[in-house]
Amino acid sequence: MVLCWRVSGFTVKGRKIVPPEGRGKTFPEFSSGKIGVAYQQNTSKSNKGNGMTSLKNKIVFITGATSGIGLACARQFAQQGARLLIAARREERLQELALEFHTAGIDVLSLTLDVRNQPAVQQAVDALPEEWKAIDVLVNNAGLSRGLDTIQEGKLQDWEEMIDTNVKGLLYISRAVLPGMVSRGSGQVINIGSVAGHEVYPKGNVYCATKHAVAALTTGMRLDLLGTGVRVTTIDPGMVETEFSVVRFHGDAERAAAVYRGLTALTPDDVADAAIYCATRPPHVSIAEMLLFPTAQASATQVVRG
Ligand SMILES: NC(=O)c1ccc[n+]([C@@H]2O[C@H](COP(=O)([O-])OP(=O)(O)OC[C@H]3O[C@@H](n4cnc5c(N)ncnc54)[C@H](OP(=O)(O)O)[C@@H]3O)[C@@H](O)[C@H]2O)c1
After folding, report:
1. What is the 16 CA–ligand 1 centroid distance (Å)?
2. pLDDT single digits (tens) 203-217
3. Distance (Å, rounded) from C-alpha 210 to C-alpha 215?
4. In this model, does residue 259 exceed pLDDT 90?
5. pTM (2 decimals)?
6. 207 has catalytic annotation
7. How far is the CA of 88 from the centre of ligand 1 (A)?
8. Count of other CB atoms within 10 angstroms of residue 103
9. Which is catalytic among the residues 39, 172, 201, 207?
10. What is the residue extent of each domain of the chain?
11. Among 6-15, 54-63, 80-89, 122-131, where is mean pLDDT lowest?
12. Could you report the per-residue pLDDT of 113-129, keeping only the tens digit for each?
């Protein structure tokens, strides 16, 4: 049986979605948070008999799930039988996705959330229903680049947005989620870093600085969480074709398309595949870092176009 939990009605493509009468469950504490909708089925967790970690009924919290790598992660974790906590700012896209997953028989709870808003992040995590509190995997994916300017011409607003999202947002989410993992003695954080956390490229200055910060924080987390049972991983892709470059160039789709012209970039699914690999290792194995390039790329600046 499918239990539908809801806070208030929501609309997808002009259609009002209302869960079946008598089967819904309301969570009053949700009314204070900007939470979309939750659907739940069977919740018993299990591990695979072959020593690998099963994701069946594991709760996977993915930030930035409305697009690109985050969305591909949501789809692939769902295929593994995970229960999805999906977060991003674009509410309508999130609700469409929640409905899509629900229709496919996946347990899902969507959180309309800006990771830069620390009180909202803490409130959303604190207000999770009991059945959704025990987060097993956190995918810190929400992030962006803004602009490609020399340091002397950089735009302060772009800098603030990247630092606030890629560094502070990742910290706020992690600070809210980690105490639960530590108290349960298990969990995994997968930070989506970048080749930009390994190398600095011309005009990449602040974006590269934020991804170097993610690399440092990943190491810091691993050190501080040693002995708690919580694994910490960073997956660091090179070029992935997503909305990333459209966002970087403030909506200039033509300039964004040129970034990927003449080469086969990684797909979001390639990165999600790496995340699934890391999350399904046996409990005693922790993948610390995975650097992932398209075959047509050898460093942040070296690519071959055919
Ligand atoms: N594409 C690449 O070449 C590449 C390479 C290396 C690393 N990465 C990293 O991969 C991650 C995902 O990027 P992507 O390539 O998949 O780009 P994308 O398609 O633009 O997706 C970014 C996601 O982050 C969300 N997001 C952005 N700001 C947010 C905020 N303040 N609060 C909550 N969610 C926010 C966006 O959703 P909303 O707009 O709905 O909030 C969207 O779902 C980023 O951390 C990026 O730095 C990308």
Report:
1. 29
2. 999 999 999 999 999
3. 9
4. yes
5. 0.90
6. yes
7. 9
8. 9
9. 207
10. 34-292
11. 6-15
12. 999 999 999 999 999 99
